[in-house]
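Q: Please design a sequence for this.
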């Protein structure tokens, strides 16, 4: 299971240093949470394409960058994030009117396409998209709401998606990746790894005052290896 940091927990005045620290620790995937101040519950406003472009310029072309769009107008603005240099655009099924068209537009632009499944969203709403998705993100918290604990009840939907994706791969289909986001720490990293997660987004479990990113990443990797 690969670990990607969410930069939302970083001190934005020190963002460049934090990114450098992550790369030095061995991180090769950066997760960018974009909130427009409207779609998420807490009405938080984070950042947009300009900051993502600065991150791309600092990290260079070899680091994978995704943007998780918690916004109302992903269908109209996706190209701005592509121009900013992301490798993958992830949008919420509830916030997009025509998801198949969004996937096609992203693939035509040589960018990967991802979809998010909120805890309250029915799994069936995204299953028809799996053959064309490069990534499915399953939230283990409610997006945009702070101070939440990991929701273990997402286990069943993750295992079902893992089974469907494995069957898809076995028949020559797309190698859709399975991502989890929300409350991932060293104590539950091995659990979600066992469920079949490919990439885990880690925020405060990786960027905190308890130690360096490398120290916290080593704690997670120790848990995965024991």
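A: Design:
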């Amino acid at each position: 299971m690969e670990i990607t940091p969410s930069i939302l927990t970083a001190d934005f005045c020190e963002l460049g240093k934090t990114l450098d620290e992550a790369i030095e620790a061995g991180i090769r995937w950066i997760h960018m949470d974009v909130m427009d101040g409207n779609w998420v519950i807490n009405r938080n406003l984070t950042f947009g394409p300009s900051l993502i472009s600065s991150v791309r310029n600092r990290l260079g072309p070899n680091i994978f960058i995704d943007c998780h769009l918690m916004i109302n107008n992903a269908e109209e603005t996706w190209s701005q994030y592509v121009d900013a240099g992301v490798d993958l655009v992830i949008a919420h099924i509830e916030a997009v009117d025509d998801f198949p068209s969004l996937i096609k537009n992203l693939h035509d632009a040589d960018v990967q396409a991802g979809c998010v499944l909120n805890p309250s969203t029915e799994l069936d709403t995204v299953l028809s998209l799996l053959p064309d998705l490069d990534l499915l993100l399953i939230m283990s918290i409610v997006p945009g709401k702070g101070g939440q604990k990991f929701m273990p009840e997402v286990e069943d939907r993750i295992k079902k998606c893992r089974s469907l994706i494995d069957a898809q791969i076995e028949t020559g289909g797309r190698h859709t990746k399975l991502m989890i986001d929300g409350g991932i720490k060293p104590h539950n990293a091995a659990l979600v790894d066992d469920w079949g997660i490919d990439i885990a987004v880690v925020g405060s479990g990786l960027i905190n005052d308890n130690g360096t990113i490398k120290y916290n990443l080593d704690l997670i990797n120790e848990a995965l290896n024991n």
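Q: Thanks. Anything notable?
A: Residues 109 and 185 are 35 Å apart (CA to CA). The two ends are 14 Å apart (CA to CA).
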